[in-house]
Design goal:
CATH topology: Dodecin subunit-like
CATH class: Alpha Beta
Strand content: over 45%
Distance between the termini: 8 Å
Order of helices and strands: EHEE
CATH architecture: 2-Layer Sandwich
Oligomer: single chain
Largest sheet: 3 strands, antiparallel
Number of strands: 3
């Protein structure tokens, strides 16, 4: 079985874990056979001297259909 990888950036106001979950949920809307993921980058936005948004760049691996 072969796999392919796609990269998605998830965003959340709640934290990095939720941002990663949002990335997977976004991919699941259009990609089947999701298998696993790897968070490759964490970053965020600052507004009014406070963290206002969390971003997680996620590589999502899925099986190719034959």
């Amino acid at each position: 079985m072969s796999q392919k990888v796609t990269e998605v950036v998830g965003v959340s106001k709640e934290g990095f874990a939720k941002a990663a979950e949002n990335a997977v949920a976004t991919a699941a809307k259009t990609v089947r056979n999701l298998r696993w993921f790897r968070v490759t980058e964490l970053e965020g936005r600052i507004s009014d001297q406070r963290v206002s948004e969390y971003h997680a760049t996620v590589k999502i691996y899925f099986d190719l259909e034959t």
